[in-house]
């Protein structure tokens, strides 16, 4: 039967992590180990294997459920990168890496004799689609574009976990601020040269969160029974792109007045630009706030200063 919250929270836990070689997953593994937990990394590439790692292949449906035996919790973050021009092959990889990988983990959990107490499964605020100025919480409807459809299938693939009686948290992640990866890392070089500025009309909303708060929120989700179902992993104060870029320029003591035309992004990145860089999602972390989570970086300027 599932582990109780006290059995996870009061003693060091054994936690399996997929996506452990990515920016977020790698930082989470380090954080959990520093807190005395045992982490089993599930890794696809033999080049990235370390002693104690477990090999798996979501595209080949290869995961021995015995490698999950004894785990108090599972954090499933694996998925193919999104931030590149979308060909038909790339879109297939984006979808299948998420849906197949999640189905593999979910069915593995459902088949376990002794199940983990909680599974955190990745998702994204892309679930909501391009929504303009609308405020979005976990009860908001999904969008209709490619990423929205992927997110719905991604979350749906995790359903066997909840159906098996295991607490399931769906991590709808926003823009994670880190100088070492993700959107901010790509923005820093031109901004440091004084060549940064608003993207498109600058009115699109950006739902961001510091890497520190993202890690803290995942820890909170692991050890708090109050959280289940969709959880927006975003700060409580989303900003427009114009506000974000102006604040980043101020933090770096550089001008941020060189605009990036919408048409230029569409020419370079095609559909991906419209669905990500130019899309507007004003997501709010209602579930986190209701569960008494306290943000270390609720305001953008402090979050950027801590991130760069």
Give a written overview of the molecule:
By secondary structure, this protein is an alpha/beta fold. It has helices at residues 5-9, 23-34, 88-111, 146-157, 159-163, 182-192, 211-223, 241-252, 262-269, 271-277, 286-290, 300-307; strands at 14-18, 38-43, 54-55, 73-76, 118-124, 135-136, 167-173, 175-177, 205-206, 208-210, 229-233, 239-240, 282-283. The strands form 4 sheets. It has a 7-stranded parallel beta sheet with strand order 3-2-1-4-5-7-11, with helices on both faces. Strands 6-13 form a two-stranded parallel sheet. The N and C termini lie far apart (44 Å). The relative contact order is 0.14. The model is unreliable at 1-7 (pLDDT under 50).
Please state the structural category. Answer: alpha/beta
Q: Please summarize the sheet with the most strands.
A: 7 strands, parallel
Distance between the termini: 44 Å
Q: Round the mean pLDDT to the nearest integer and report it.
A: 93
- Write down the secondary-structure element order: HEHEEEHEEHHEEHEEHEEHHHEHH
The CATH H-level superfamily of the domain at 5-176 and 208-234 and 282-295 is: NAD(P)-binding Rossmann-like Domain
Could you give the order of strands across the largest sheet?
A: 3-2-1-4-5-7-11
- Name given to the CATH architecture of the domain at 5-176 and 208-234 and 282-295: 3-Layer(aba) Sandwich
Helix residue percentage: 25-40%
Poorly predicted runs are: 1-7
* CATH topological fold name of the domain at 5-176 and 208-234 and 282-295: Rossmann fold
Shape: globular
CATH class division of the domain at 5-176 and 208-234 and 282-295: Alpha Beta
